[in-house]
Structure formats: C-alpha cells, structure tokens
Amino acid sequence: MYTERLVDEELDSLCTGLPAIALEGAKGVGKTATASRRADTIFSLDRRETWTSVDQDPEIILTGSGITFVDEWQRVPDVWNVVRRAVDDGAEPGRFLLAGSATPSEQARLHSGAGRIVRLLMRPMSMPERGIASASVSFSDLLSGRVPPVEGETSFRTQDYVDEIMASGFPGIRSRSAGVRRSLLESYVDQIVEHDIQDAGGRVRRPVALRGWLAAYGAATASTASYTSIARAATPGEDAKPAKETGMAYRDLLQRLWILDPLPAWVPAFTHLVRLGQAPKHHLVDPALAAVLVGADERSLIRGDGPMRNDETFLGALFESLAVQSVRVLAQVSQSRAYHLRTQGGEHEIDIIVQRPDHKVLAIEVKVATAVRPADVKHLHWLSEQAPGTVVDKVIINAGSRAYRRLDGVAVVPLALLGS
Fold first, then answer.
1. DSSP state letters, 237-266
2. Which is nearest to 7 in space by CA: 118, 83, 82, 164?
3. Closest by Cα among 177, 60, 71, 48 to 122
4. How many angstroms separate the most distant Cα atoms in the chain?
5. Which residues sit opposite 362 in a β-bridge?
6. Tens digit of each residue's pLDDT (9 = 90 or more) over 202-224
7. Domains with residue ranges and CATH for the chain
8. What gap in Å lies between CA 386 and CA 273, rounded to an integer?
9. 69-123, pLDDT tens digit by residue?
10. Whole-model pTM?
11. What is the Cα–Cα distance from 103 to 75, expressed in whole angstroms?
C-alpha cells in the first residue's frame, strides 16, 4: 500500500505545467513508487532487457504513451538529452518523469537541462510522513511569521525517538522487524561500497578504507568536523592516514549518490552579520545509517554510548539529524531552504536556519532533552537582536511531551508534533 508523501503535492503541481521532472535522491527513499503511480509507460533501466533496449536506442523512450517514467535514467545518460530535446520540440506538460539515484559521472556529456527539466529532491520519510503521531504544530505557520499559538501533547518519549532513528525513513526498511531492519541497513552500506559507486562511474581501490571513512563521517554527524579529522578518525592506530585528496574523492562519490546530505552554512545576503563559519554540518541521508556504521543500537544510544562531543551524546547528534531530515522535507514543500549558523569562533551556533525566498528566516535549535534551559534559547535571541526584522520566529525542537510558547516568545515543539 502506498504511503502519501509530502513531495506528492509538489509533483502534482509541477506536472500540470512542466513537461519533464527529474526525481532525485538516494536509493530506497521511494522515488520509484511515487513516480510509478502516475505513469502510463515505464522504462525500468535496472532491468537488463530494458536497459539493453534503451542503451542501443535512447529515443525508444519517445514511443511511450501518456506520462512516460524512466527509472534509474542515469544508467543510460543519453536519456537526459533525449528528454531535453523532446521538451524543446514542444512536449506537453507531465510528459516525462525521470528518477535517478546517482548523478552521472563527469564523463557523461549532458546538457544541464536548465529551463527544460526541473529537478526535485526526495529524501527519506520525515516524521510527519511516518504516521506515528498526530501533528499539532504547523511548520508552514511557523515559517509564515504570523507567530501562531503553539499547543498539543504527545506520548512520544526518548525511547520512541530512539526507535524511530533506528527504524530509518526508508519505506522498504522501516516496515520490517527491528532485527531485519538492521540487516537491511548493513546490506545498504555494503551495496554502496561494493557496487553503487562503481555503477555510478566511480572507482574504489580499497573498499575497507571507504567503509572506515563512512563510519568516521557517521560519527561526526551534526558536527562541522574537518575532513582531515574525519580521515584521521577513519584509521585509528595507523600511522599512514588517507591523503586529503582521497577523503575528498570519497565525499564527492558519496554525494553523487545522495548518501551524504551535509547541511550548508547560512551566509546571509542582507544583514550585517560577519565572521560566520562556512563549513557544512555533516549528515548522512538517514541517521539510521550513521548509527549502524558506528555500531550503535537502541540500548547503546539510551545508555549514552558512542562518539561524544563536549557534553553531547551521540543520541543527541542523531536526534538532531532526524530533526534536520524532517525540517528539510518540510522546508522544500514551502519553497524554502535549510542551513545552519555558526560563528567562526563557535561563540554562537543555531542548528537550523530555514530561509524563505524573501530571505526572512525561521531559527530552530534542536535538543534531545525534554525540558528547555535558559542556555538553549540564548543563540536564538542573539540572532534576533543581530538581524532585526529578519527572524520571523524562534523554535526549540525537543523530545518533550508538550508544545507551548514561552514567555519570551520562543516556540517549544516536540519533534513528534511538528507537521506540515
């Protein structure tokens, strides 16, 4: 049974006016199911017979009737150019849907498709899409600047968030039992290292080294750790460390597969803020992958085991990653973009900055704690003072049981209660 996704509304709207849309994202996020239900003709290029036919004659996709969906189009990169030319020739709205789980290598000479093919990113299921709680706080209302009342209660507790982290947002994985999920997530990592990168045109000389780098990246979740420090952490106890170029190659390959989903730094265009850091915050496409890569499970996360940063637990980092994943899905629906803020010296940090098209922002801090301390809101107030008129609302996302607005105006929203 298909579970409705937030991207469905975007896709339906775009299909009424655009002839070609490319759904992009990591394997397993649900692109095929979402596109297939709209298609009249489907070319699945992960099937050998179909791939052979399309590889020999990419223009065969033009013979499809109605809405034509080409799945894993990057396996025959010329498909992109065929669709682009069809759009130039007057293809009707909704004619083509493409889905890809990798960006073709630089050797594939593709026209950008700008103005012809619109790209739409699909991520794993956000908390609202998982159907595990009744959301009472509207993200779009918070982003609107109307400063809406905030209310609602949830029975979700820390253990429930741990369960959700480990269940993942991949539709085909989260529906399985806990033991099977872990095996599937480990297999997902194996597939990336041993097959997907090569299929995307990359080359990995030492799969073990790549796996170690991925684990170190997962341990750095929700941090701005340098890639040099990640490389050092990937080879503990070894004198020979991977060259910086090797780490950058891993990063580029994994981003092409949408496995890495770093949160970029906010660089405001219309405020006087200076000395802001520009390093991204590290996130994998799903926090469950980070947990599996470092060997964490439900019990170890509750105990507080795992990589530590200052006084923060690994569970705190994964909870932040889960919140970032959900907010990015919600922001995309609202035609907004998500960033993080950190001053160069680290004096001020804000976990998520959601910027609207008019450059106004929603400032969000994420805390796995159930109660809000004065220190939790100080950076939100600092930004509001430094950029008057820019911050439309201030929010703490936490693991508490009740949504409310503090006397200082900050909205406190349990993650389970945040909806579209």
1. T-SSPPPHHHHHHHHHHHHHTT-B--BPBP
2. 118
3. 71
4. 66
5. 354, 393
6. 778 888 889 999 999 999 999 99
7. 6-121 (3.40.50.300), 128-419 (no CATH)
8. 7
9. 999 999 999 999 999 999 999 999 999 999 999 887 655 556 556 668 999 999 9
10. 0.94
11. 10
